[in-house]
Amino acid sequence: MKNKNLPYLIIFSVIVILIAELIGFKVLSIGKFKIGLLPLLFALIITMILAFNIFRKGILGKVYNEENVNFAGKYLIIIMLPLMAKYGADVAPRLKEVISIGWIFLIQELGNVGTVIIGLPIALLIGLRREAIGSTLGLGREGELAYISEKYTLNSDEGRGVLSMYIFGTLFGAIFFSVIAPIFLEIGFRVEALAIASGMGSASMMTAASSALAAIHPEKAEIIRAYAAASQLLTSFIGTFTMVFIAVPLQRFMYNKLTGGKKND
Q1: Residue 170 burial by CB count (10 A; 0-12/13-18/19+): exposed, middle or buried?
Q2: Cβ–Cβ under 8 Å, residues 199 and 230
């Protein structure tokens, strides 16, 4: 059946985008730290606040109705495709430079096991058990979601763990990385290193992190976007193999050792 409330969603999206762009890029100073706040961040905050039940009445009720929410979730990836095409175009002019430091991008992929090494013990410490397997395998994006759903199904404890991280990352991931990237920059990390680290397998999180860095260093905006895009593409390709052949066996070993349980094959 045709979604009669879709025009409300489109008009609402345009209005929120205009408001966010009018607010523009802001710098929040906390002591010696300077945190860049992107229009993307303001757009997310506005839409999240208005999604509370207290505001979901009248026109906003039509904007946030179930059909529109399902539509937004289903077609988000299609909306992101032009952005991915742009990032691919950003890599091309810097391809020689990217290839020259290719080994750094490969080493960066090993960072994907950080969620297992650091996150798994913490998850078990706060009381999670099988849910920890799904929630700490990675950032909980499409790759991890597909693997866990195929191996355990989403109705399992592992499935609930990865699904929780997927939802949490969708809601708060871009906000978190748009703030944390400038903080690491102020600590002393090189902007090139942070640009490479921005390619973590999530288009929205990568965009938030790299855009925040580019706003602080506009003179290096082109190289930041190129490094982030190259890292993102590599993560999307090699990240799956890293997860299956490194992260999963490591997680299985650590889980069994930390819980004293049986193998979770």
Answers
A1: middle
A2: yes
- Sorted by sequence, the CB contacts under 8 Å of residue 147 that are 6+ apart come out as 137, 243, 244, 248
pLDDT single digits (tens) 77-101: 576 667 667 666 766 676 676 667 6
Closest to 138 in 3D by CA, of 252, 237, 243: 243
Residue count of the chain: 265
At 186, list the tokens: 């102020």
User: Alpha-carbon distance 203 to 4, whole Å?
Assistant: 30
Cα gap 149→100, rounded to integer Å: 38
Report d(CA 196, CA 157) in Å as an integer. Answer: 33
Taking each helix axis as running N to C, give the angle between helix 157-187 and helix 39-50, from 0 to 180 degrees, rounded to the nearest 10: 140
Average confidence score pLDDT of the chain = 81
Which pLDDT band, with edges at 50, 70 and 90, does 263 fall under?
very low
Cα separation, 127 vs 104, whole angstroms = 36
Determine contact, residues 134/148, Cβ cutoff 8 Å. yes
Alpha helices (H) in the chain, listed in sequence order: 6-23, 39-50, 59-63, 66-91, 95-100, 102-109, 114, 120-125, 130-135, 142-151, 157-187, 191-197, 203-216, 221-242, 248-259
